[in-house]
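quick one, 249 residues, struct below
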Amino acid sequence: MGGYLAVRPKMAARLRLFCFHHAGGGAMSFARWQNRFGSDISVIPVRLPGRETRLREERVTDGEQLSRELEAELGPFLDRPYALYGHSLGALVAYSFALHHHRSGGRPPEVLTVGACSAPHLGMPDLEGAEGSDERVLSVMRASGGITSQLLDRPQWLQLTMAIMRDDLLLAAGLRAAAGDPLPCPVLAVSGQDDLLVPPGAVHAWSRYAPEGFRTGSVPGDHLFVRDADLADLLRAELEERRPLEPAI
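---
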């Protein structure tokens, strides 16, 4: 399936879970998630332009443009119970999109889960200006656990990943600058126990944006704990507890 949706939603599922990837990443971050959620939850990774199967497309660095494009593609699938998960940059994308969809008259998500992302008003001091030089981009990638020996052995891949990361950091900065409004849904904020970029307190500060209810969670792993099973298990338990009242059709 092309465009933002990496897979087509399962129409018989009781709930659709849209997943937004981290900076420099892609929809493959969630490749194994469907197996952990079962058939009643449809896991739908969202792939931003300029990576993976969308490599030839121009990357989006404007938050308003991104929300409009997401609305056009995801909107038709949000008429049924759904939830959003965003990791790092993806948390800001999911937050902004949830507000955009609500302002457009759409139903809110059952819950927005944000992982490895400080609350918008706090910013991320370690990332400020990181898009300005290769050295700063590399330092961010190292701190997040995003550099592998395989990547270092392939200079062309490394340069491409750095270019994607640089544009994603620009997008993140713009999304933070435009943030501020509370969300129309409960929020679950998850931190990594070994995350060197985002401490738990900065993640828990999302409570400011969650008048409809707020919870926190913690899982083992560094900034990219999205790759580990603990996060999927925690989120599955959260969604089971928030089981929508309306039955699947």
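Residues 44 and 144 are 24 Å apart (CA to CA).
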